[in-house]
Amino acid sequence: MSEPEIHGSDEIHTSDIVIIGAGPVGLFSVFQCGMLGMSCQLVDALPASGGQCAALYPEKPIYDIPAVPQLNAAELIDCLEQQIAPFAPIFHLDQQVIELQRVGEYWDLLTAAGKSLRGKAIIIAAGVGAFGPNRPPLANIERYEGRHVHYMVGEREQFRDQRVVIAGGGDSAVDWALALVDVAAKIYVIHRRERFRAAPDSVDKMHALANAGKIELVIPYQLAGLEGDKTSAEDSTLRAVLVKHLDGTERRLEADHLLAFFGLASKLGPINNWNLGIHNGGIAVDPTTCVTELPGVYAVGDIAMYPHKLKLILTGFAEAAQAAHAAYTVVNPGKALHFQHSTTSGIPGLEK
Amino acid sequence: MTMIHFIRTNGEKVSIDAIPGSTVMEVAREHDLPMLAACGGSLACASCHVIVDEAWFEKLGELSEEEEDLLDTAHGLTHTSRLCCQIKVSDNIDGLVVNLTPME
Questions:
Q1: Is the same domain home to A200 and A241?
Q2: pLDDT single digits (tens) B44-73
Q3: Are residues A126 and A195 in the same domain?
Q4: Which domains are assigned to chain B?
Q5: Nearest residue to B16 via CA among B26, B35, B2
Q6: What are the chain A neighbours of B81 within 8 Å (beta carbons)?
Q7: Given A233, A262, A291, which residue is the final one in a domain?
Q8: What is the Rg, in whole angstroms, of the alpha carbon atoms belonging to chain B?
Q9: Which of B76, B78, B104 lies closest to A267 in CB terms?
Q10: CA B97 to chain centre
Q11: Which of A25, A57, A303 to probe by mutation at the B interface, max B CB count within 10 Å?
Q12: Based on the domain organization, do A248 and A341 belong to the same domain?
């Protein structure tokens, strides 16, 4: 395992392999690389490992993992983390990758948190892309993000005496409506239908507050637009949120803030710009090695594409093994790869 | 023969002879139409949202509560919004018209 190198103030985190994506296939790539003596670091946009398994369906049962009749997605991630623990992978979470650059014999990755990660090979296990807030597609929304449009809330106090529009029908929307009722000057809750998919007690409380006139429910409406301060040059001050009834009627809600709670959505983002021949969200690879169009850059799991590809965790695990063996020759040029089954080799670094 | 007519966001119509038993999402993906279908049809996202032609909506039957819940996270909804991973191709939907939604 290589120690991070220090170059002045710029620390470069170095390992044999850098894995993009800490979902099930990214995690298992650590195992396959580790069995071949290669060190790994992982980077993921989410604040926790597990990818879709953790973010989208932790409670859903999975039945097609060989020799495991049933386990849920969160348990699968727990088991994988135990399995790779002997290889001491380094995690860089809560930061999307931004740039990939060839530097001599290395690939350097820059993350949104400003970290530099260096490896002799890269394994992209990015699934359907990096998860981020599911942003409503409203014109110019980026102008207001941060100051007026929020996808998560830190401090209640920032909304004191402010007019707040909350959009969404889940727990976040309901919980924040309840949390801000005594703080904000006005609260609107926009939702597309009567039913909220939130804790029933909280929904009841919200309805009671609505009946008492403390919260205005705007149902069945959805977001239609944002209106800024037209007198200012950049127009970056929010004045109103426009909403539309499913039948087409529009309403203009004067507001200082929009809290948009539509869960997570995934996007490939910067990976699109790396000349990887991406088509419809997939990276073309040679399935026998999982190598992409860039030498030393591999893609595995849902993002790897070839004819008759099956998007299964099972397939991704096998691809991780293909990629690790192919990457070995890049990481260890001129060194023979002595193939061993785990029954023979044991887990390197563990007492047999 | 079960024809499914997809209308792209630019208005272009793509008609596909689909095999009964698959889902409309699978038909779209197999024919390279722009659709993320991130979760692969496991009812865990809303990225296969389509707008069904009004004449067809009721013929497709009721939406499950799970599908309704996920539609809450879609944008640009209408009264005939569906997740097309939940629409099974069968002889009963021969001629179905669905409008694709913008893929980010």
A1: yes
A2: 889 999 999 999 999 999 999 999 999 999
A3: no
A4: 2-100 (3.10.20.30)
A5: B2
A6: none
A7: A262
A8: 12
A9: B104
A10: 9
A11: A57
A12: no
pLDDT at A9 over 50: no
Cβ-Cβ contacts under 8 Å, B45 against chain A = 56, 265
Nearest-Cα distance to chain A for B75, in Å, is 6
In sequence order, what DSSP letters do the residues of A163-210 get, joined into one string?
Answer: EEEEE-SBHHHHHHHHHHTTTSSEEEEE-SSS--BS-HHHHHHHHHHH
Digit-coded pLDDT (tens) for A299-346: 999 999 999 899 999 999 999 999 999 999 999 999 998 888 888 888
Q: What is the pLDDT of residue A340?
A: 85
Q: What is the ipTM of this complex?
A: 0.90
Domain identity same for A332 and A229: no
d(CA A111, CA A229): 34
**Boundary of a domain, candidates A240, A262, A284:** A262
Q: Which domain holds residue A200?
A: 141-262
The answer to whether residues A38 and A153 belong to one domain is no
Chain B contact set for A281 (CB, 8 A): 36
Which residue of B lies nearest to A61 if distances are taken between CA atoms? Answer: B42
What pLDDT does residue A352 have? 46
**Does A295 lie in the same domain as A245?**
no
Q: What is the pLDDT of residues A143-177, one digit of tens each?
A: 999 999 999 888 899 999 999 999 999 999 999 99
The total domain count for chain A is: 2
C-alpha to C-alpha distance for B103 and A83, rounded to whole angstroms: 37
User: Residue A53: what residue type?
Assistant: C
Please indicate whether, in this complex, the C-beta atoms of A52 and B104 are within 8 angstroms of each other: no
Q: How many contacts does A have with B, using Cβ atoms within 8 A?
A: 55
